[in-house]
Amino acid sequence: MQPSPSPVTAPSILIVDDTPENLQLLNGMLKGRGYKARPVPSGEMALRAAKSDPPDLILLDINMPEMNGYEVCRRLKGDPALAAIPVIFISALNETMDKVKAFGLGGVDYITKPFQFEGVHARVETHLKLRQLQKELEHQNQQLKESYDRLRELETLRDNLVHLVVHDLRSPLAMMAGYVDLIKVKIAAKLNASEVGYIDVVGKHTAKLLDMVTTLLDVSRMEAGQMPLNRQACDLAGVAKEVTDSFSVLAGRRQLSIESLSGPLSVHADKDVLQRVIANLVGNAIKFTPDGGQIRVTIGRKDSMARVAVTDSGPGIPAEYHAKVFEKFGQVDKQARRHSTGLGLTFCKLAVQAHGGEIGVESEVGKGSTFWFALPLR
Q1: pTM (2 decimals)?
Q2: Could you tell me the CA-to-CA distances from 80 to 15, 74, 75, 77 in Å, in that order?
Q3: Arithmetic mean of pLDDT, 21-28
């Protein structure tokens, strides 16, 4: 004899059959196994009983007067409050089409009369366990959804706070940068080389902070779809050359080159934003490429897209970080990259996507990296 369910948590089973003998037999056997059996002799009564106190499982006969089991099941599955209750058909009908129809209406199992109770009990147990697992999964999913929604709320609050603080920082930083330039113009002649160097350092880091603030604000505007793009016809190779030439001094002892692999490529883009994207990629390549290394900017065409790729001979990026580097504040767990703000590549991704393009990275540890983006040709 198998152990009976606990009386406190006894599953409720609604038995629907118009034959009193069948009702009595199933009712007695299920109660004997510790279940809360609820026999009803008609489809109408079954629907009322299910609505007033939803059972954990329903054993449903098919051939009944006034309303057959198929119609009962159809109505149950049409009620959102009752649709998840497992229905096991138990009938003398044994044709394949009868079973197909039963499963098609939402039945989870089909038992043919005459039946062996051990078989009925095994199927009841199985579907009760499946239903319990389903409930637990639904509960966990609900908890996950609530946690996710809460995290989204906190993330929105964080972003709003950061945006507010950063927005208020922009004006003082711009003023500081202006005064640093003014100091250099007004009193540079009265200072020695070391003192001028101090002012240059202050100016450099003020400009860096201002650039970080601008990038963060632009990222926020792009995420909200509020950054206007001044699109125009742009010669991609020409724009890339302008940006690359501007980095010739910063490249230092690294070899920085540019190559066009096809004829003129025209894209419909915001030139300033396009320059910033390329500048971010070239700047990152310089930052992570050692002295004596190589950085190559290539412009080419792939199908109907114009493609820019920036290849460096730096340390490379592990495969598991390829997607993460484009996330806001995403960083690679390498000593050389721990000082990254994690905003430049996020800006690049959002800017490229706003132009209807694609962006990605190809990299192996120890073999350098290639950051690329592609825009639709005009």
Answers
A1: 0.56
A2: 21, 12, 10, 7
A3: 92
